[in-house]
Amino acid sequence: MNHTDTTTLIPDAAGLARAAALLARGDLVAFPTETVYGLGADARSGAAVARIFAAKDRPTFNPLIVHLADADAAREYVRWNDMAEVLARAFWPGPLTMVLPLRDGHGIAPLVTAGLDTLAVRVPAHPAARGLLRAFGGPLAAPSANPSGRISPTSAGHVLAGLNGRIAAVLDDGPCAVGLESTIVGLTGDAPVLLRPGGLAAERIEAALGRPLAQRAAAAALTAPGQMESHYAPAAPVRLNAQTANAGEVLLGFGPVTCDLNLSPSGDLQQAAAALFGHLHQLDAQGQPIAVSPIPDHGLGVAINDRLRRAAAPRGAQ
Ligand code: TXA
Ligand code: MG
Fold first, then answer.
1. Ligand 2 centre distance from Cα of residue 310 (Å)
2. How far is the CA of 200 from the centre of ligand 1 (A)?
3. Structural domain boundaries of the chain?
4. Does the Cβ of 39 fall within 6 Å of ligand 1?
C-alpha cells in the first residue's frame, strides 16, 4: 500500500474515529502508548498484519504483541491462569506484556504469533491508546513503530522520521512517559519467566507474585526474537561504560557528569528510561560515535542496559 504522506491525527473523538476507521479497513495507524509508539493493525486480519512487516522490513518470524482494552478482552484470546490474574490486577493497564497459551478459536491471524501456540497480550495505560482500542473495538497487533532494528520511537516525530509514507496515519499525543518497551513475562509453564526486561522493573513483578522470575534460557532465542543482538541501533557506533568521551565522540551522560546530553543529571533511572530513545535519536542525527556513561544495573537500569547493549552490538547481527 502506498501512502504519499502519512496523516497526523490528534486523539480527540474525531481523530480516534478516523484512526479506528483506517484500522477497520486494514490500514496501519501508529499510536502512543506509555512505553513507546506502536504500529497498530487489526490482529484478526492477516493482510493488515502483513502490512506491519512490510512497513517495518521486519523478519516475519518475530511475533507481535496484541493490545487490548482490558483483561476481559485478553481472556477471550488466551488461556488465563492465577499468575496472570495477579499480574493483571497489579499492573494493567501498564507497561507489562504477558505471554500465555492461545485459546482454541481465538481468531488471531497466524502471522501475529509467527506460528507459535502462545500469544503476547498487553493492556496499555495511555489514554490515547485506550481511546483507540475502544473506538476500534478489537485486538490491535502492534510492534514498536520504527523500521526493524532501529531505535524505538517515543514521539510522533520519531515515527514519521522512520515510517512517513509507509503507514496511513499517526496519532500524535506527545512524548511517551515510560520510554522503554513493556516488560515481557512468559506464563506458559510452571515458573514465570522474564522474556524481556522493560518499563516495569522485574523486582516489582517478583514482589507481586511472591516468587522470583526465571531468566529466559539463551537457547530459547526464537521464542523472543526481540532478544536478537543488534536491535535499537543508531547508525553511529556506540561505546558503553565510558567515563569520558574520546576525541570525536559525543557523550550520553548519566548522573553529575560533563556531557553532550544527560539521561538524568540527578541519576534517576525512571527519568533516564523516559529520555533514552529520544536522546539516542538526537545524538544519532549528529552522526558521531556515541559514548555512554555507566548505568546502575537494578530496577529500570536493567532494561536501559539491555537496550544500550543492543545499540552497541555489532551490526548485521539481526
Ligand atoms: O511496549 C511495548 O511492548 C511496545 C508497545 C508498542 O506496546 N511494543 C513492542 O513490540 O515493543 P515489539 O514488536 O517491538 O516487541 C515485541 C516482543 C518481541 O521481542 C517478540 O519477540 C516478543 O515480544 N513476543 C511477541 N509474541 C511473543 C510470544 N508469543 N512469545 C514470546 N515472545 C513474544
Ligand atoms: Mg521493537
1. 12
2. 14
3. 7-215, 238-317
4. no
Question: Probe ligand 1: pick from 79, 111, 181, max atoms within 8 Å of CB?
Answer: 181
Instruction: Please indicate whether residue 273, judged by its CB atom, sits closer than 6 Å to ligand 1.
Output: no
- The runs of H, that is alpha helices, within the chain are 13-24, 46-56, 71-75, 82-91, 110-113, 127-136, 156-163, 202-209, 269-286, 300-312
CATH code, 7-215 = 3.90.870.10
pTM for this predicted structure? 0.91
Q: Starting at the edge strand that comes first in sequence, how are the strands of the sheet with 290-292 ordered? A: 238-239, 290-292, 250-253, 261-262
Cα of 99 to ligand 2 centre, how many Å? 16
Tell whether ligand 1 has an atom less than 6 A from the beta carbon of residue 133.
no
Give the CA-trace dihedral at 72, 226, 157, 68, to 10 degrees: -10
User: And the C-alpha cell for 35?
Assistant: 512505553
pLDDT tens digits, 63-99: 999 999 999 999 999 999 999 999 999 999 999 999 9
- Rounded-to-integer distance, Cα 156 and Cα 160, Å: 6
What does DSSP say about strands 65-67 and 96-101: parallel, antiparallel, or unpaired? unpaired
Note the pLDDT tens digit of each residue in 245-292: 999 999 999 999 999 999 999 999 999 999 999 999 999 888 899 999
The count of other CB atoms within 10 Å of the CB of residue 208 is: 16
CB-CB neighbours of 4 under 10 Å: 6
Identify which of 184, 187, 183 has the alpha carbon closest to the alpha carbon of residue 81: 187
Cβ–ligand 1 distance for 125 under 6 Å, the answer no
